[in-house]
Amino acid sequence: MKRIAVLTSGGDAPGMNPALRAVVRTAVAHGLEIFGIQRGYQGLIDGELSPMDARSVSGIIHHGGTILRTARCPDFKHAEGRARAADRLRRLEIEGLVVIGGDGSYRGAYELWRDHGTACVGIPGTIDNDIGGTEYTIGFDTALNTAVEAIDRLRDTAASHDRIFFVEVMGRHSGFIAMYSGLAGGAEGILVPETKTEISVLVAALREASARGKKSMIVIVAEGDDAGNAFDIARQVADSSEFKDVRVSVLGHLQRGGTPTAFDRVLAARMGVAAVEALLTGASNTMMVLENNAIARKPITEAWETRNLFDPDLFRMNSLLSV
User: Fold this and answer.
1) Within-domain flag for 323
2) Residue 146 pLDDT class (50, 70, 90 cuts)
3) Which of helix, strand or coil describes residue 226?
4) Listed residue (244, 210, 241, 242) closest to 323, CA to CA
5) Which of 39, 83, 227, 263 is the Cys-Cys partner for 141 at CB 3.0 to 4.6 Å?
6) CA distance linking residue 269 with residue 277, whole number of Å
7) Any catalytic annotation for residue 75?
8) Strands 246-250 and 164-169, bridge-based pairing
9) What strand order describes the sheet that includes 96-101?
10) Model confidence, pTM
């Protein structure tokens, strides 16, 4: 193998730039030519590729987002679009592709390999930590710390005004950010997509906390909770209880940006090096995973065929600690 390419796809995540840096510099160290693809699969179809070297990724290790940018690509969902992408790689004599992204990005890589035999290796970059087969994804730790910092600040205001704050964090299908930020932030309630939310049960828990002398409380709501978003849930609680002075804060895309934590930078470096070296050994249709604190390889299909789930005992722990 002499020439490879790298792209970032899907939602941006802190740590994508350190992962890109590791991929480029590992390729250079092994004597490979490497091309960066702008705007993900859309850029691949449109031919937005340019050669990179070690200096191309200087000074990006501490920046959030991705210097390669990312975009949705409806064309890549169709066989014709994937054929154009594969043809682009063939004409440039690119033999391997590193894809940094989440579930949708991995599905694209799998289809490119399945339909055209393109050697693809995935690096999990998503704040949701919802890629099956890996314990952690790049970006989760940074997003988690961003959420915890916001919760700490909101608790100051909640305590000053004797209020209940409903804090909505990202996680349409995964409650990792909600669960971990709630536990770290001392939340009185944590609502996630993985479990059914009963407003009556939540109200009862808030009443118990109030009876124990709590004047202010924090409830963390994952955006994909089955009872609705944070505004919906706050309204239902206010309508069905004596708790009328409630406030809602939606953290939104704030969680995606910012300087990646040391954990995310190190994870990105380890996976970036491993991805390039996997291509050099002939690996394809493969993703990098963190398993028992070691970097390993698994079939890319495991990203969606299995599900990364947090320990449900964390609910019990949070209940014990939030008295």
Assistant:
1) no
2) very high
3) coil
4) 210
5) 263
6) 12
7) no
8) parallel
9) 49-52, 33-37, 3-8, 96-101, 119-124, 286-291, 294-299
10) 0.95
Tell me how far apart the alpha carbons of residues 161 and 24 are, in angstroms, rounded to a whole number. Answer: 51
Q: Are residues 122 and 152 in the same domain?
A: no
Token match 């996680």: residue? 171
Task: Tell me, yes or no, whether 122 and 148 share the same domain.
Answer: no
Q: How many structural domains are present in the chain?
A: 2
The pLDDT of 244-266, averaged and rounded, is: 96
Report the chain's C-alpha Rg in angstroms: 22
d(CA 273, CA 32): 13
Give the residues across from 302 on adjacent strands. none
The dihedral over CA atoms of 219, 224, 227, 233, expressed in degrees to the nearest 10, equals 40
pLDDT band at 72 (very low <50, low <70, confident <90, very high): confident
CB atoms under 10 Å from CB of 16, counted, come to 31
Q: What is the CATH number of the domain that holds 291?
A: 3.40.50.450
Q: What residue type is 238 in one-letter code?
A: A
The CATH number assigned to the domain holding 147 equals 3.40.50.460
d(CA 272, CA 41): 19
Identify whether 67 is part of a domain. yes
DSSP-assigned beta bridge partners for residue 164: 217, 246
Q: Which domain holds residue 180?
A: 141-256
| Residue among 12, 128, 130, 264 flagged as catalytic | 128
Other Cβ atoms within 10 Å of 28 Cβ, number: 18
3-state secondary structure 92-110: CCCCEEEEEECHHHHHHHH
Average pLDDT (205-227) is 94
224/264 same-domain check = no
Is 99 found in the same domain as 27?
Answer: yes
**3-class state of residue 252 by DSSP:** helix
What is the number of residues in the chain? 323
Q: What is the distance, to the nearest Å, from the Cα of residue 222 to the centroid of all Cα atoms in its chain?
A: 14
**Backbone φ, ψ for residue 226 (5° rounding):** -70, -20
pLDDT at 323 over 90: no
